[in-house]
Protein 1
Amino acid sequence: MSLPNTLYLPELREMLAENNAAELREFCTALHPARTADFMEGLTPAEAWRVLQFAEMPVRVEIFGYFSRDKQLDIIRLADRQEIAEFIAHLPPDDRVDILNALEPELVAELLPLLPAAERRDILRLRAYPENTAGAIMTTEFARLPEDLTVRQALDELARQAAELETIYYIYIVDSQDHLEGLVSARQLLSAMGRPDTMLRDLMERELVTVNVTDDREEVARKVARYDLLAIPVVDQERHMLGIITHDDVIDVVVEEATEDAYHMGGMAPLVESYLDTAFLTVWRKRAGWLAMLFVAELFTFTALASFEDAIKQIVALSLFVPLCISTGGNSGSQAATLITRAIALGQITVRDWYRVLAHEMLMGLALGCTLGCIGFVRAALTPQGILGDVSHWELAWVIAQAVALICLWGTITGSMLPLIFKRLGIDPGFASSPFVATLVDVTGIVIYFTIAKAYLL
């Protein structure tokens, strides 16, 4: 079969209707699994599962991995329990645990007894680790060898293990109790083929970068990025080798964390499905909750303005500069919050660095405040006298300059400290985002502005 770049669904459904095994097998193998999954996007879960039956198990697993999570779950729900249990047993350990965690507990209870004992024990062990830890995202399939093998023996043993392994970037050297002793890269091993009697203990690296099974997945991602690793070993407190986390899993972590932070910084709860696939009511609920909370918080600006009603009546021009002053605080606070949240995510600062951050941002807030205050001074000085009444241009300009400078300083301090406070409380620093900081600084900014105005002009 000559496969075109775009295979229309009617053609694929026609193959299914005719049960054309030869063409369906070729369809499953002719392209990269990701492209094959794309062509199957319009099929129902039942049709997609029928197509997968014509592929060998390794290819079937690869194609299935490129389906959306919803489609994967739908396939598992409708397929024959014995067939799907056999299929799940061939999935990478970390992937099958993620899928089972997303299924209904009743269905998981049906499937687990149908799995081979070794895979069932592995699933139960991985599911026991807390979510978002290294143990929850690791795979237990990795190349392991004892140190007393020669290069020739090691290559023979790897050839035997290869069919069951997800990747062979590194070969981990362990003792009889599975304690991690060292590492030999696949490149080192192949380079040593000219010296086949060389012992692995003479080749292996002993100073290794590892993560503990309970480490947060963000810490794992930072280590993999910092040391430019293709995979990182996961160990327990006694340095038993438990599994590895590969770079593709780390990429998934980085994307998920960045997506979550982006949602939080936009002031809404994260979406599980894609934007267009998410139900309207779900999107409304996730957005309305945060907006309602922020709206209620913004109502305090009304209270703050009402308390300065007399000042506004006496000098109407003061109200003209309210948006200018409070937006300054919101913008400077959001800017600082973004910088600090990002620095926390990259591991550049920790909660213990709060005093250094505070000192740095106080200086930065003063510098930025003076800069914006000068601009505000000029603008206020150019206000027509007819609007000001009995107030002097220069007095108003001085008030605006001071208010802008102090609000900018306050916004910068608030925006830099809130992420650290949230982190200390165990809350995602992403929540100390633009809407949250802006709302807080809006209310306090009004108080700062009118307090200065009353002191000078009234």
Protein 2
Amino acid sequence: MAKTKNTFEQDLFKAADKLRKNIDAAEYKHVVLGLIFLKYISESFNELYHKLEADEWSDPEDRDEYIAENCFFVPKLARWSHIHANAKLPSIGQTIDEAMEAVEKENKELKNVLPQVYGKANLDKTALGELIDLISNTELQVENENSKDLFGRVYEYFLGEFANAEGKKGGQFYTPKAIVKLMVEMIEPYKGRVYDPACGSGGMFVMSEKFVTEHSGNIKDITVYGQESNQTTWKLSRMNLAIRNINSQFVSWNTEGSFLKDAHPDLKADFILANPPFNQKEWGIDILQDDARWQYGIPPSGNANFGWMQHMLYHLAPHGVMATVLANGSLSSNTSGEGDIRKALVENDLVECIVALPKQLFYNTGIPACIWFLRREKSDHSKEVLFIDASEMGYMTSRVHRDFSDEDIALIRDTYYNWRKSERIELYADIKGFCKSATIDDIRKHNHVLTPGRYVGIPDEEDDGIPFETKMADLTATLKAQMEQEEALNEEIKTQLANIGFSL
């Protein structure tokens, strides 16, 4: 089998990581990501600078010209040409710190966001100069329409690799891309307010923006709201969003966090996406006993799972939908009233879909997790819940980490689509061992436990010797063929109608 060629971002990360030497990944990521950000905004600035320079009526050093074009203004001492020219000097660390400070002063939305860590004694200045050379030699031009996406991809890839290197700590700021993509594609945030109360490095927002763009929507039709209690992680999110021109003015930081100091108390979001801390202890319930958010029961002090769930529900608009990752214990625990809260959510017909995930998907924990999908108005599926057991899906990317393929994501997403949307319901069928549409009466028989395995059952044992993965691949292909057949039929109907002078 031929060796797969490394992508641009893989090659760049490997080269950058070689320069890390004795610095922890947790610290080094700010060094690298900060430089990537500075390189990007400098190139964006240069593109507009040259256009203004060619216009006799414009001043390329006029800051207002850049504000008018939604472009960061980069002062002379922060431009990449200046940084690169000083890369071999022992004072390069101080030069970069001064550049970061200057950029913050000129762009209020970046105030207190950029890392100023380059002058630290433990950072090898020779290696720092080599890192600058490496990033300089990427030869990216902003005129290339894909440059923003490429910088974004590099930034996103580096976040993932650093999360991998940091292990448990890395999971605090990064949710694996496949999980985010699955959640976003299932709730379809085309237009409205998108909220993440534990936003980490902003991955949910970035994927929402990609979804809108890929489906020919207008990114201006969504507004992102977020909150993060870790200031360092919040800075990553602001840079992550800025590199894609996503307005982050409503992405807030405070040390108290979403429970104790809700940054958006009056927000009613159309879409909520989150991966809050699993099984969080000592989260503040002692002083929040009578909080208005606990509409379905007071969450226990030793576990914030249903605190997060109800915080999100409180902020969900009347027609809104939410998806949140939680530990599997949330599906079955009866400790300290958790079972009663889960029962109330089911009986109030808020739970729409539960997806069981496989182990080893997350960097910060090896325990299996699940995704809850809740919707205030379920229309076609009132009093029903779709259970999907994806716990055996995915593939191992290393000895310790699992991932979903695009085909895995498509299978789960399309199963949900086919079940939820009335015009496609004929494409849905329960599949033993994989999916089951259950009524609330069914759920009552299981004492409101929502573990998908209880409902989908175990696949029938067959002596055909065909592996589970192969069967899933065949199922994916079948679903795709059915969808293509449906599209072809629709086109044929349109053609026939047009022939008789009727247009849709």
Protein 3
Amino acid sequence: MKQVVHLIVIIFIALLTFASCGDHKSVRQVPHLGNTPYQQDSVLVTYATNPKRALTLLDSAQLLGHISDYRGQFIRAKIYSKSLVEQQQDSAILILTSLLTHDSVRNNATERENIYDLLITASRIKHDLEAYLHWATLKAELCRAAGQRAYTAR
């Protein structure tokens, strides 16, 4: 009787082993981000685990020309706006308000909305309700105007 139980257990373990070794397609592949860590995607992926390293990569990417000055400043402000350090939040607000005058932002409603989102986030983290309401109102007006244009275009 013991031999039969041992045999059943061995067969069961063997079946489990073969069943678990099957489909290799279930392995998720990480997309190739290029041949250099000095790109926007790499900086943002690194930010999730190591914000200081992300800032170093960002500086290098800007020096190498992989990220434009505007995009680099935007990413830096994005990193700073999510920080709990008050000086970095202040820096994010300064960078973002200066970016509002950039041609890429004035001529593109999506970029302006992205900047408003970061300004709203930084203001909320700083508990600056007046600034929060100001940026939220500007974003609401921007969205309302975009909706109005889409409605009249129909």
Protein 4
Amino acid sequence: MAWADLHAFLAHLERRGQLRRVSAPVDPHLEVTEIVTRVVRDRGPALLFESPRGADMPLAINVFGTEERMAAALGVERLDEVGGRLAALLRPELPTGLSGLRDALGKAASLASVPPRRVRTAPCQDVVLKGSDVDLFRLPGVHAWPSDGGAFLNLGLTHTRHPETGARNLGMYRLQRHDARTVGMHWQIHKDSNAHHAVAERRGERLPVAIAFGCDPVVTYAASAPLPADIDEYLFAGYLRGERVEMVDCLSVPLRVPANAQIVLEGWLEPGERRPEGPFGDHTGFYTPVEPFPALHVDVMTMRRDPIFQTIVVGRPPQEDGPMGKATERIFLPLIRMMVPDIVDYDLPEAGVFHNCCIVSIDKRYPKHAQKVMNAIWGAGLLSLSKLIVVVDADCDVHDYTEVAWRAFGNVDYAHDLLTTIGPVDHLDHASYEQFWGGKVGVDATRKLPTEGYRRDGGWPEEIVMDDAVRAQVTRRWKEYGL
């Protein structure tokens, strides 16, 4: 199912008891965070604050706060369904026979039929504010944590174009509200929009930027997805939706934005201009320090007649971004397996904020196979930021942390089964001694082979496993035993 807009998805959640309206005035300064943090930890509903203090529009939050809601946002029952569709699309076999050719053409057609579609008018431009009428304080930006540098407009979908190639990028970056018409752009060194800005500055040019809030949930997710630079996020969103995304020309910048967005900010980045940004209580659970980042001057602000501002609280897990990260993990498994075919499955624990730890299972075939996979992961896109990799055998459920821990604690000789290296780490990593790079470790928790130096008599011991026939008998007679 493709949701027409944010309103439609919120109505769906409310019909199913998954949205709670809060009519009392709630303060976006710290109070929203405390409420949302409690609700997230109880796996509670999405929240619609109808009267946030100091703003003139409702605030939607915790919309993606459970895996069930995240799956519903993408129109599926389970997140793995999306990965299954993507796996079928990416399957590389050459077509054989008429049926194989038909299947290959069908895959190509499934992508070719969903590029974004331009429309002339759009709900996101029902209300137009220009120049001095622009007022970012109308938006209920959340000042989430006590030492934050101010209110942040999170979950904004940032649109840029490469100044030379014209390639579009859609990204999601934190946005600090500096004043009524200026927001800070915290995009990190490995982000495509940062690359667009760098090219514009080398050319001495301004960079046009458009930021959309409250888009349909698939488009919002697509902005956070770690797609390769040559894959258009709106083509990906159309594929996930099964329908083309309608887009409209901005009024003051040469960019297009989703027609069904709630609010859109349009403006320019002046070459060389930076403003202090932060501190910001981030998903690491620590504040990131003040650093200079570009500042967007907003010339035009457009919105629907009945806008809802959607945002997210970021902080120490668990938070709403957990299910979003889990969606990325499941959806991109087929792509990861194309880059590293040895991988059977993988898990990125939320407690590791999805890049500090990567658990992978492999069908081990030769000595030091686990170490080969570790090195491949450290060269695979954003997985290269992984600081800890734990490799287990294929019969281990990587999502069962007790099972993984049992193997990592018991199957490892730490004098022989660790691989240490140095490489890139996340911009936000506070533990690295130098920014952007630091130490990494891989743990080989697989069964060891004699050819790997394991020299005990009898080889690797047999694992204790109950007989299947006995297990089945007990299952049948469970009630008879009074248990």
